[in-house]
Amino acid sequence: MSLSSAQCRAARALLEWSQDDLSSASKVAKATIANFEAGKRAPYERTLQDMKQALEVGGVIFIPENGGGAGVRLAKRATASIDTNETQTVQYEEHLTNDAPPGAGG
């Protein structure tokens, strides 16, 4: 599936990316992006692939034409239910007291 100018604009909007941001992420000149989005010129297929890949890495999913029109959406972000920073040791107060009977080696 190729990238349309409308999908490119919509994907940038979802990510809150400027044309400069997409240019940096895709290594495509800002002028190329601006001309493409304005419908002034069609970039090479490889350039479109680079832009699309950068947007996908940013978190966009491209929706193919399926009778309702091609589109974009944000990927569902994985969320942790607890803080999983494994570099910190957490000690809870109830674990700081020795509740084992005397001589239990605990």
TrEMBL record:
- Look up the domain of life of the source: Bacteria
* Boundaries of every HTH cro/C1-type domain copy: 9-62
Tell me which Pfam families the record gives: HTH_3 (PF01381)
What name is this protein filed under?
Transcriptional regulator with XRE-family HTH domain
> Could you tell me which species this protein originates from?
Rhizobium laguerreae
